Amino acid sequence: MRKGFTLIELIVVVIVVGILATIAIPQYLRATERAKGAKARSALGLVAGAEKQARADTDLYVSTSDASLVADLGTYTEMDSIANDPDWDYDVAAVGGASFTATATRVGGGTNAGETISLTDAGVWGGDFTP
Fold it and tell me: Which run of H or E residues covers position 99?
């Protein structure tokens, strides 16, 4: 009696593994994009909270960008991890100091590059990010 696998058995195993990979890899990529979107929503919530604290102190919302996030809002909440996020760029546009819209823009070369998630001072979510 011979030991080992036949060529047919090995081909069947390779085909089954290929089919499983074709199903699993896109699901994994979608799950990681959804997680990155949740991270951005959490960060925007922190930015909105810091903006509201800044307005309580100065009666104005602050316009800021990713580069100056720590300097402008870092005294109100920890902004280092938000400002150094490799997946998203964050910007806050304050209109006359009376309202603001915080926006996260997806960076990178993936299918979601350039898509946004936004949050206004009224708590309205927007954007075109679709993981």
Answer: strand 99-106
